[in-house]
Design brief:
Strand order of the largest sheet: 1-2-3-4-6-5
Number of strands: 10
Shape: globular
Largest sheet: 6 strands, mixed
CATH architecture of the largest domain: 3-Layer(aba) Sandwich
CATH superfamily of the largest domain: Gcn5-related N-acetyltransferase (GNAT)
Radius of gyration: 21 Å
Amino acid sequence: MRSVWRSEDLDRTMGKTCTSICLNSSGQMIGNLYFNQQEPEAFQTWELGYVFNSDYQGKGLATESCRELLKYGFETLKIRPVIAKCNPYNVSSYRLLERLGFRREGHALQTVYFKFDSKGQPIWHDTYTYALLRNEWLDLQGKEAPRGKRLLQSHSVFPTVNLEKTSDFYSRFMGFKAVPYLEAKEPHVCLYRDETEIILTQSHGQKVIPNRVLYGYGYDAYFIIRKQELLGFS
């Protein structure tokens, strides 16, 4: 199966669906963008994908490259929607899409696999699906958009004196998936459940006082589901 994926990657790279991204200073290729029209063509739907050398990630190069390609698609080709997909654990990937203005439209469970476990069984991964319409793109560019720019999403940031203990609580009792970044310059843990994301940050020793203690009312977070009684700690 791995050889098939490599063949497909080669076909993409050698075909018309991929655009190489190179540094102006040296001409070195640092990544490529996948941009291809989907079937049926009458729907005018295109899919965006991206692969960048890890040495050049986190420098804004992927954002700049994708933005220029989207500008060409929406303003020159006059395409209608662009879709994109990524692994929910690939935080940098979906944050890139959100910076570009994409909306998260779905969370599909166990849709794809790339590796096998020790027993030869596929390791399935979930998929986030994103989309961006032409009028939304123009809105964000300030064209034909009296509403101006709009907020796309917000994330809760909770400080804690013990990242591991707090993330373990959310994982065991509330069903969140924890993705730790403890070796980062600013250690943190990202917690995911359904469409909710929480970012735990290190408080550097300061005592964290709950709102109800500090102000006499309120809670630090509210979690709402359709059947609230099912949100118990079990």
